[in-house]
Amino acid sequence: MIPRLIDTHVSFGFWPWMDFSAITPGALIRNLQAEGIQEAWISSIESLLFPDVDIPDARLREAFQNHPQVKLVKTINPILGNWRESLQTAIEVNGFHLVRIAPSYHLYPLLDWRVIELAETLLRLNIPLIVQMRIEDERNQYPLLQVTPPPPEHIAHLAALFPHLRILVLGALANHIPAILSDNNNALCDISFAESGTTVESLLATVPPNRLLFGSHSPFFYTQASVRKLTGAAICGSAQQDIAFRNARAFLPV
Predict the structure, then answer these.
(1) Which CATH number does 5-251 carry?
(2) Domain limits of the chain?
């Protein structure tokens, strides 16, 4: 039995191709807590499609302001001219804890010079970077919105460029995780999109447990199924706890 779970991959808001209308902040938190999740890192899915990312992120902050078990994730679009002001306000004034980029949705290459500037800024501020690799399985995407994830080797290269910047990759497939984590010691991946008969055991055959974090990708995926992926894994207790909460706790700024 895992004593606690930190869920690093939770979304909230409106998504055009899914019906999340019944998922209120309270309902989402209750669903997570029912599966033993004591802390959730939540980002706005609307910020992936909204021209001004600050507007849906403001709604996210309002929705969860009375939920202390939530770490708010600020989406930054570095091709917008005001991203520095947006970042400063989010962290210093509005209580966001983490920063996410979504290059495939905001239409810029991961190794764009503006991402480099953002990475330099985050490193100075001691703020980790979350890279949203995918939200949906490419086979299930709406035909008029086909989104190609950034190449795994580009993520590995970004991590190598900034060896002291903690980078969390959300939504990597199991066969891409080793490539993302190669040649660097500072990138980590959540396990939400890693699927096989023995998901966690197979991953640990190629990557160490201190490079993986639990993520359910709720409400897109069933929370219970995501939790069972970890709790049902035939791995040692120490590795299980690393993935469940210890790596996430170490990832956060001191």
Answers:
(1) 3.20.20.140
(2) 5-251
Q: How far is CA 76 from CA 15, 47, 137, in A?
A: 19, 9, 23
Structure tokens, 91: 């962290």
Tell me how far apart the alpha carbons of residues 252 and 218 are, in angstroms, rounded to a whole number: 21
Q: Are 221 and 192 in contact (CB under 8 A)?
A: yes
Residue 149 CA to residue 152 CA, distance in Å, equals 8
Among candidates 37, 12, 31, which has minimal Cα distance to 230? 37
Q: What DSSP character marks residue 218?
A: B
Per residue in 215-226, pLDDT (tens digit) is 999 999 999 999
CA 81 to the chain's CA centroid: 24
How many Å apart are CA 88 and CA 147, to the nearest integer?
Answer: 29
Q: Is the dihedral of CA 65, 81, 217, 231 positive or negative?
A: negative
DSSP 8-state class, residue 21: T
Q: Please list, in sequence order, all residues whose beta carbon lies within 8 angstroms of the beta carbon of residue 13, skipping any fewer than 6 positions away.
A: 20, 44, 45, 46, 47, 56, 59, 60
As a whole number of angstroms, the distance between CA 112 and CA 65 comes to 34
φ and ψ at residue 190, rounded to 5 degrees: -85, 165
pTM exceeding 0.85: yes
- Dump pLDDT digits (tens) for 4-20: 899 999 999 999 999 99
